[in-house]
Prior knowledge:
Number of helices of chain A: 10
Distance between the termini of chain A: 59 Å
CATH topology of the largest domain in chain A: Rossmann fold
Oligomer: homodimer
CATH class of the largest domain in chain A: Alpha Beta
Radius of gyration of chain A: 27 Å
Structural class of chain A: alpha+beta
Order of helices and strands of chain A: EHEEEEHEEEEEHEHEHHHEEHEHEHEE
Helix content of chain A: 25-40%
CATH superfamily of the largest domain in chain A: Vaccinia Virus protein VP39
Strand content of chain A: 25-35%
Number of domains of chain A: 2
Largest sheet of chain A: 8 strands, mixed
Amino acid sequence: MALRHYILDFNLSAPADYPSTVRGLQSIFQEQEMTETVHDTEGHGYLATFIGKNGRFLLLRLHSHGLVTLDLQCCEGDNTAQVDNLLNALEKKMKSLLHGNIRRVKRLPALTRGAAVDRYWPTADGRLVEYDIDRVLYDEDSAYQNIKILHSQQFGNILILNGDVNLADSDLPYTQAIMGGGKENYTGKEVLILGGGDGGNFAEAVKLKPKMITMVEISFGSLRPVDVLLQGFVMSSPWFWFWTHMRKTCGSVLDNLTGDCYQVLVEDCVPVLKKYVEEGKTFDYVINDLTAVPISTAPEEDSTWEFLRLILDLSIKVLRPTGKYFTQGNCANLTEALTLYEEQLGRLSCPVDFSKEVVCVPSYMELWVFYTIWKK
Amino acid sequence: MALRHYILDFNLSAPADYPSTVRGLQSIFQEQEMTETVHDTEGHGYLATFIGKNGRFLLLRLHSHGLVTLDLQCCEGDNTAQVDNLLNALEKKMKSLLHGNIRRVKRLPALTRGAAVDRYWPTADGRLVEYDIDRVLYDEDSAYQNIKILHSQQFGNILILNGDVNLADSDLPYTQAIMGGGKENYTGKEVLILGGGDGGNFAEAVKLKPKMITMVEISFGSLRPVDVLLQGFVMSSPWFWFWTHMRKTCGSVLDNLTGDCYQVLVEDCVPVLKKYVEEGKTFDYVINDLTAVPISTAPEEDSTWEFLRLILDLSIKVLRPTGKYFTQGNCANLTEALTLYEEQLGRLSCPVDFSKEVVCVPSYMELWVFYTIWKK
């Protein structure tokens, strides 16, 4: 059973008079039969807590700098009309007690805490956002990460890896952006996709009649490799269920690991890339859909940057002179991370140029940066 | 000075043992020199509050159904590294006390309450979302509504009317959608725009070389009509500052109320539409950018629906037989509101058909529905 947490705040022009404000609210608390405790804050304003019926808890703070905050916590099964009435009564009373002194009233949509279906998936730049998630379709730990597929009323099924929103049914703009923003002609081309286990850009690329697409995705095999090795996702495979839920994104193209113009290699991409470099094999397009750019250069991130640079270097080596390398960066607000990434581009064994595009990916709730990189 | 509110929740497989859990956390609270109060919840789990230094307040609840919630409130000036350490210590301790029993740990990005710059602007479907707002550029009450222009790092300047996000610099997709989704040829056409005071679709339409655009926007004159009547927005007009901040959206086209192919009427659109109907004046395109569809049929909304139907009826009357009427609906999740709107379309004096499109408007953080309506 979840907890509903209501927040109601008042910004004042001048600090409120504690005794008269508290006295004014008292009748409401009494009516609710709430038990009051006034706490000693050692000079940090007025603070009282109230325990009511059915596990209701209320916190009233009158801050010394002219802010009044109210928190009301109720159990999920509590009568929401009653709770709304209580909040309305408190808001109305505060307005009449402090009329003229209130600069802003802010009542936030109630937070739902501890619910079976978690609706809060913060953005990459650390903002709190609530999604319209109503169902959990898939929730498994692979050898590499936690994989969730949640259903959003408006975005459709959303893939969430280790708590990060990755791709939803609504997110064709992501797929288009990481394939060159619709400006490329894939017909007859050779394409290498690194990662992209959701199948989004794989399915999209197949439609464009390339000569050959090779997708190298390690995590396909991470849950039960034996199912993957069967070359066809039988129902016993967790990936079968995964793709059942991501079908709007990947279509039926991943039901088999090989087709007329494609092959899926269930392998780590680094040895595959090294082998291609040795063999002199090259591609028209390399699409790196492995992961977003690391967000810092903290020591623990060092290896991530090194890994990223290794893959970049190998990818550029297998790129034809006229070829293009596409990848996601990170959210537009993480300018430091993007700058660090661009610095890496100057440190490759083969000199490159790049362009970037800012794209609105519907389910991300933040703008996202995509890169196109080519040999100088 | 704002309040930072941290939330840290634990979903358990089975209810926690109160005494041992509380005893286990005690050393942390003692180290922080927090004063504890244990409250009688009348059988609704364990609830303790703690008052610490510098106005810190902590609430610990062990709910009887296997949920543990922690709230920590600190003043804005508090040492965030120390606060993070405290939360880390609590999380670590809980994990060691309840290892194996924890199904989920959820730590939300801290809420900032009562800050000068408000970052929380809920979606039309009532979800809590935090924006990357860093500055308030404009905040005035007109005769009709509160008008704010806030600066978002990623979306640019955002116009907020009565607390609803209306249009940001990033939102060309809104303008394109309400002009027919880029599928229309405006060259040589006669266009009527109702509302749209931000100038977005007005500026966009002017670029498309129509014969004549007439925009009817009442609120231009709402703050200081005298400035508007000067036919040119002198610096003394609040609208001058408004358009300074919305310049990326509206360009310079609204610096004057008339131009080669346009005129702006600072009037209520209803009498203007009635006059056009009487005169037999017609248009190729009517763009209704007045307001979103009302979200209910509650009695207080009756007049809103009536107003909406009146404008719709008059607009269809001034539409040429091959003409099109474009308007926004509401967010995709408010299906009831959209259905009600579509019912209105069956009740017009002239029979119409319609199509709708779901569009991602970057700053909205929710998908939005747009309608195209034409005479049968």
